[in-house]
Amino acid sequence: MTYHPKSDFIATMIERGFLADCTDYQGLDDALISGVQTAYIGYDATAQSLHVGHLMNIMVLRWLQKTGHKPITLMGGGTTKVGDPSFRSDERPLLGPKQIDANIAGMQKVFAKYLSYDDSDTGALMLNNAEWLDSLNYLDFLRDIGRHFSVNRMLSFESVKSRLDREQSLSFLEFNYMILQAYDFLELNRRYGCVLQMGGSDQWGNIVNGIDLTRRVLDQEIYGLTTPLLTTSDGRKMGKSQGGAIWLNGDMLSAYEFWQFWRNTTDADVGRFLKIFTELPVDECDRLAALQGSEINEAKIRLANEVTTLLHGAEAAATAEATAREVFEKGGVGDDLPTLTIGADELPASIVQLIVKSGLAKSGKEAKRLIAENGAKLDDAPLTDAGLMIDAGALSSPIKLSAGKKRHALVQLG
């Protein structure tokens, strides 16, 4: 990146590794130094919680606000009814209005941890595109908006092309999605003066569509900025673990498990993740990333503490660290470990069932393989008998199950 930005926001994006591409660096930079600008990122309400894969762009909105601008979190109450086909091999299952509203309520809890929603010039706005999409008249929409879209051009976008190249069906419903997303940008510009849409680099085609449409209909100069698609150093998509998605809502994933996810970051990713997911100064991120040998573990603990503090608070981060030290360094049982409570009527239970129910394995087959490969422990002792039955006597005090060195759970009698 040879461009030398004048605005704090673009400088932060470049310096901390948030920037993949921008439709007009100079134009956006000039706009950002001329006064408060409004920017948005859209989120479809396909689950009850955001996950770690969303966290990079949430941090982008946070930095936007911290550098003196106004973020909009646009909830896709309308577009979720259609489904974004971008880089998917299949059509999303369609959700009903009640489920969509429940999902939006769950996602809003997370945004409130990172952004200030208030009446100030830079106060964030929480909007729902159902506000304008639900009341659209189809014929008017086709005449006023549809005429600006070239099907030839839409077919050339990578997200659509990849689906067609694999000869996978792309429904007319999904094909409409990119028109609706473009229309969102137009409406946000018209209603709120929004001049910038941001998103992952897979959204580039959709963002460009919105810019073209808004220029044609409203004759407004607006911009697009994308973040890189984040993968771990071993090539995996960010946010997935053996146990599934790393959710941001505390009732779907405990603060301890969230902390542990970051503590388990590979050495090669620590510096990059510190810059993206924390607010530590860049030189401090570089210092921590340069640590060698066992010292790098302190950098990982710092990463886990900083990220967990932002989402769950400093107390939750401190408790998680204390629990981890108790479990890993002293071999004890921490109070904050994920806990499975079972009733006496469910006993005796096989150790394989308990490993699955506590989330340490996805299936009985996986649990048995874990035991066979000496990867499972019961109260820190190797677990070798897959046929072991646990009765009420064995649970007179909680037992600790472990899968490998880093994943643990307690089982107690309810």
Chain-wise SSE layout:
Layout: H1 8-15, E1 21-22, H2 25-33, E2 38-43, H3 52-66, E3 70-75, H4 97-114, E4 125-128, H5 130-133, H6 138-144, H7 151-156, H8 158-165, H9 172-175, H10 177-192, E5 194-200, H11 204-218, E6 223-227, E7 240-241, E8 244-245, H12 255-263, H13 270-277, H14 282-289, H15 296-312, H16 314-329, E9 339-342, E10 349-350, H17 351-357, H18 364-372, E11 376-378, E12 381-382, E13 389-390, E14 399-403, E15 407-413
Helix pairs in contact: 10-11, 12-15, 12-16, 13-14, 13-15, 15-16, 17-18
Write up what this structure looks like.
This protein has 414 residues and is α/β, with parallel strands linked by helices. It has three domains: 8-227, Rossmann fold (3-Layer(aba) Sandwich), CATH 3.40.50.620; 254-329, Tyrosyl-Transfer RNA Synthetase (Orthogonal Bundle), CATH 1.10.240; 339-413, Roll (Structural Genomics Hypothetical 15.5 Kd Protein In mrcA-pckA Intergenic Region, Chain A). It contains 18 helices and 15 strands. The chain has helices at 8-15, 25-33, 52-66, 97-114, 130-133, 138-144, 151-156, 158-165, 172-175, 177-192, 204-218, 255-263, 270-277, 282-289, 296-312, 314-329, 351-357, 364-372; strands spanning 21-22, 38-43, 70-75, 125-128, 194-200, 223-227, 240-241, 244-245, 339-342, 349-350, 376-378, 381-382, 389-390, 399-403, 407-413. The mean pLDDT is 88.
Principal-axis shape: globular
Describe the largest sheet. Answer: 6 strands, mixed
Q: Count the E strands.
A: 15
CATH level 1 name of the largest domain: Alpha Beta
Radius of gyration: 24 Å
| Total of helices | 18
Query: For the largest beta sheet, what order do the strands appear in spatially?
Result: 1-6-5-2-3-4
First-last Cα distance: 58 Å
CATH superfamily of the largest domain: HUPs
Quick check: average pLDDT? 88
CATH architecture field of the largest domain: 3-Layer(aba) Sandwich
